[in-house]
Write a structure and sequence with these properties.
Layout lengths: L1 H19 L2 H7 L6 H24 L2 H25 L16 H5 L12 H9 L14 H26 L1
Length: 169
């Protein structure tokens, strides 16, 4: 029950963030965007399963537990579909042509100068400021990645524990 509740809380956080930042409007405007039914169906089924699981915990009725697991299975399928459709792939879009950079611009930086010759000006520039000092940055986890990953792993753990619990009773 706890993992399911934490998973739902993380999912609610992601859904709220997505809606408040215009995700629903952006997906509707984009050709081939995710249908809202997919996102809201995922959330609705997960919450329905959580309520059914709570009812099972209160009553001990195994049919409620299996109904909760069925909701969880469908919600997981919709969640995996969402992740699959949202994950960018490094492929060209249909009809897109990639134009290589012109080689002439890279070959001759300055027509009047040999690119392999070191000059006094170059040395003076490097001695004046060889490398700007780097600031030490605190290592912070990227929440945009951490929250969905935690949500997915907790969802898998929830499913495994729910099936194990019902099978053992």
């Amino acid at each position: 029950m706890i993992t399911w509740a934490v998973t739902a809380a993380l999912g609610g956080y992601m859904l709220r963030t997505w809606v408040t930042r215009g995700g629903l409007r952006r997906e509707r405007a984009r050709k081939g965007g995710l249908p809202p039914q997919l996102i809201f169906g995922h959330a609705t089924l997960a919450l329905t399963g959580l309520v059914l699981w709570g009812s099972f915990a209160a009553s001990g009725e195994r049919a409620l537990a299996w109904a909760a697991i069925a909701c969880l299975m469908v919600a997981a399928g919709l969640g995996l579909s969402t992740v699959t459709l949202w994950t960018p792939y490094p492929t060209a879009k249909p009809g897109e042509r990639r134009v290589p950079a012109p080689e002439t611009a890279m070959m001759v930086p300055d027509a009047g100068r040999d690119p392999f010759q070191v000059t006094d000006e170059m040395i003076a520039e490097l001695l004046a400021d060889p490398y700007p000092e780097r600031r030490q940055q605190a290592i912070r986890p990227n929440m945009a990645v951490l929250v969905p990953v935690a949500h997915g792993f907790l969802a898998m753990a929830t499913f495994i524990m729910a099936v194990t619990t019902v099978s053992a009773t």
